[in-house]
Design goal:
heterodimer; A: 404 residues; alpha+beta; Methylamine Dehydrogenase, Chain H; five-stranded antiparallel β-sheet; four-stranded antiparallel β-sheet; 14% helix; B: 170 residues; mainly alpha; Arc Repressor Mutant, subunit A; disordered C terminus
Chain lengths: 404, 170
C-alpha cells in the first residue's frame, strides 16, 4: 500500500491544476448564479401562490436577461506572482516577480473543446539598496524565464533566486541552467554546470542566508515539506518542520541525518506551524479539540509550556514567524486575515498596520521580513503590490508590481 | 451587492481553490463549476465567515462537502475511461507522463467520497480525525474509506507496473 500512497501523494502535489479563472470573471459568475437562484425561488413562489402564469414567465425571462448581461467576458487577464525575495543584508535586496497576460476565453459551453489559452509571461528583477524604500529594475539573464512551481520550496520562495555558495546572487530557470551576478544584477555570468539537485532522497532547503542546501533525508518521507509546511532553519543549524497531519514537530540537528519527534501539547490533534530563530526558543501553533493553543519551548523543544490567553493562534492556514528580539509575527489568525504581533513576554496580539491584507507567505531573509499575497489576478492592467518588506515588523515598504 | 472584502478574498483564494477543485474533479471545467458553487454558498454567509476568521478554511470545507453531497448528480461530469494503451518501455522518456495519466484515471474511477478522503489525506496530509470533522463523518468511516480507496487504486495501478517508475525530489 505504501507505494500506492507515495504515487498518489506525489501526483497530487506535483499537479498545480489549471489556470484559475480571473477574479472578476468568477465574481460575475457568483453574482449571476445568486441572481438566478433568487429569481427561480421568486418565480416558484409566484406559481405556488397561484399568480398568473404569464407574470411568472415574464419574471423568469427578465431574470435570464439579467444573468446574460451580468456575465463578464474579459478579453485579457493580468496576473502577478511572487517568485522569491532575497536580501543579502538589511539594505540590499532582490525581488523576482512574474507578470503574465492571459487571453481569457470566457465561458465554455458544455461539451465544447477546451480553448487554447494564450499566455505571455515575463519575469522582472527589482533591486533595492536602501532596505526596500526604493527599487530599480534590472534585466534578468534569461527570457522567457517562466516560473516552474516545482521549484517552489514553499509558496513565494522559489529556487529561481538564491545566494550561490560563492556569495553571488544566482538566478535559475526551470531547466536547471543558472546565472550569477556580483554587481547587483547589472551583469550576469552563466554557470557551466547545471543547478545542484542533491543526492537521491535528500531534501532541498534554504539556509538562513538563502543558500541552497540539501538535508541528508527528510523525516520519514520528504513529502512532508510542501507549499504550506516550510522547513524552518535556525541559527544553531537545526531545521524544524511540523508533522503535517500529526500532532508533533520534527527537528534535525545534524543536517537531516536523524530527525527527532517532539510533542508540544499532549492533547493536540495537529501542529499548524512551528517558528524559531535560534533553535532554543521555539513556538508552535497547536490545534486541540475545540480550539487552538500557542506553545513555547525555551530549551530546544525538550519541554513546552502553553502561553495563556491566546486561544486563536493557530486556525487552519495560519502562519508564524519568530523574530530575533523574541517577538512572534502571526498571519491569517485574525478576523481580517492580516498580520498580528505578539511581543516577547506579552499575551496580547497586536494588529500590524501597513502590511498586505492577505498574507500567504511569511519569511525572513537577510534580516528582513517578507509578507506576501503570492499572486494577484485582475482585468485591470494596473496591478497593485503583492509583497511588502520590513526590518522591524512595524514599518512596511511595498514592493511595486511589474509594469504592464 | 457583494462586499469588497469578498471580492478580494475571491482574488486571493482562486489559485488554491482551483487546485483543490481540480484534484477532486479531474476536469478543469467541472472544477471551475465547483469553485463557483462553493463561492456562491460562501457569499450568502460572508459577513459571519469573515468575522469568524479563516475564510479559506471555511471555503475548503464547503467545497469538499458540496462535492461529496449531491453535486455530482447536479453537474455533468466527464467520465475518464481506463487506459488500455501500450505500456512504456524501460527508458521511455514519456513513461513518467504516462504514469501520471494512469494515476489520474484511477483516481477518477473512485466513488466521490473515497476520492475526497484521499485528496484531503494526501494533498493536505490531514489526519482521519480532521477529515472526519471536515466531511461530517465519523473517524472510523474515514479510516475505512481511505483503506478502501487505496486498495481500489492499487488494484487499478497494478496492471501498469507503476512500481517501476520513480520520481526525484527535485
Amino acid at each position: 500500500m505504501e507505494r500506492t500512497e507515495e504515487l498518489l501523494r506525489d501526483e497530487l502535489r506535483r499537479t498545480t491544476g489549471p489556470l484559475p479563472p480571473g477574479r472578476d470573471v468568477m465574481v460575475a459568475r457568483v453574482v449571476a448564479a445568486r441572481r438566478r437562484r433568487v429569481a427561480v425561488g421568486a418565480a416558484l413562489a409566484v406559481v405556488l401562490f397561484g399568480a398568473v402564469a404569464s407574470t411568472a414567465s415574464v419574471f423568469i425571462v427578465g431574470a435570464a436577461r439579467g444573468i446574460e448581461s451580468g456575465s463578464a467576458t474579459t478579453p485579457r487577464l493580468h496576473q502577478n506572482e511572487l517568485v522569491n525575495v532575497v536580501f543579502t543584508d538589511p539594505a540590499h535586496g532582490y525581488v523576482v516577480q512574474q507578470r503574465c497576460t492571459l487571453d481569457e476565453p470566457g465561458p465554455v459551453p458544455a461539451g465544447a473543446p477546451t480553448p487554447d489559452i494564450h499566455q505571455d509571461c515575463r519575469s522582472q528583477l527589482l533591486v533595492t539598496a536602501d532596505g526596500g524604500l526604493t527599487w530599480q529594475e534590472r534585466d534578468l539573464p534569461a527570457e522567457p524565464a517562466t516560473k516552474d512551481s516545482s521549484m517552489d520550496l514553499t509558496y513565494g520562495h522559489s529556487l529561481m533566486l538564491w545566494v550561490h555558495e560563492s556569495g553571488a546572487l544566482a538566478f535559475g530557470s526551470w531547466d536547471r541552467l543558472y546565472w550569477t551576478t556580483v554587481d547587483s544584477g547589472q551583469t550576469w555570468q552563466q554557470s557551466p554546470t547545471p543547478r545542484e539537485i542533491g543526492p537521491a532522497g535528500s531534501l532541498a532547503a534554504f539556509t538562513l542566508d538563502d543558500q541552497l542546501t540539501f538535508l541528508a533525508t527528510g523525516p520519514g518521507a520528504p513529502h512532508l515539506v510542501h507549499d504550506t509546511n516550510p522547513l524552518v532553519p535556525a541559527t544553531d543549524g537545526s531545521y524544524w518542520l511540523t508533522c503535517g497531519g500529526d500532532p508533533c514537530v520534527y527537528v534535525t540537528r545534524d543536517h537531516g541525518q536523524t530527525w527527532q519527534t517532539l510533542a508540544p501539547v499532549g492533547a493536540a490533534t495537529r501542529v499548524e506551524w512551528v517558528a524559531t530563530v535560534d533553535g532554543q526558543q521555539v513556538y508552535a501553533g497547536v490545534r486541540v479539540p475545540g480550539g487552538t493553543r500557542l506553545a513555547r519551548s525555551t530549551d530546544g523543544g525538550a519541554t513546552w509550556t502553553e502561553i495563556p490567553g491566546l486561544a486563536d493562534a493557530a486556525p487552519k492556514g495560519a502562519k508564524a514567524l519568530a523574530l530575533p528580539n523574541g517577538d512572534l509575527l502571526l498571519a491569517q489568525t485574525g478576523p481580517d486575515g492580516g498580520l498580528r504581533l505578539l511581543r516577547a513576554g506579552t499575551t496580547v496580539l497586536e494588529p500590524v498596520t501597513g502590511a498586505p491584507a492577505v498574507v500567504m507567505a511569511l519569511y525572513r531573509t537577510g534580516g528582513v521580513i517578507v509578507a506576501a499575497q503570492i499572486m494577484q489576478q485582475s482585468d485591470d492592467p494596473n496591478l497593485s503590490s503583492i509583497v511588502s518588506v520590513s526590518s522591524d515588523a512595524t514599518t512596511w515598504h511595498a514592493v511595486p508590481p511589474p509594469p504592464g | 451587492m457583494l462586499d469588497s472584502s469578498f471580492t478580494d478574498f475571491v482574488g486571493a483564494s482562486l489559485p488554491p481553490l482551483t487546485r483543490y477543485a481540480y484534484a477532486l474533479t479531474g476536469d478543469p471545467h467541472a472544477g471551475e463549476d465547483l469553485v463557483q458553487d462553493t463561492l456562491v454558498k460562501l457569499a450568502r454567509a460572508w459577513r459571519r465567515i469573515r468575522h469568524d476568521g479563516n475564510p479559506l478554511g471555511y471555503a475548503k470545507t464547503v467545497m469538499f462537502r458540496t462535492y461529496v453531497s449531491r453535486w455530482r448528480v447536479l453537474r455533468h461530469r466527464p467520465v475518464l475511461q481506463d487506459y488500455r494503451g501500450d505500456e512504456a518501455e524501460p527508458g521511455d522518456p514519456y513513461a513518467d507522463i504516462e504514469s501520471r495519466d494512469v494515476v489520474w484515471r484511477a483516481l477518477a474511477g473512485l466513488p466521490r467520497l473515497q476520492r475526497a478522503v484521499l485528496v484531503l489525506g494526501y494533498l493536505d496530509d490531514l489526519a482521519d480525525e480532521d477529515i472526519a470533522e471536515m466531511l461530517d463523518r465519523r473517524p472510523s468511516t474515514i479510516r475505512s474509506l481511505r483503506h478502501r480507496g487505496l486498495q481500489a487504486l492499487r488494484k487499478r495501478l497494478e496492471p501498469h507496473n507503476l512500481s517501476e517508475v520513480t520520481h526525484g525530489t527535485n
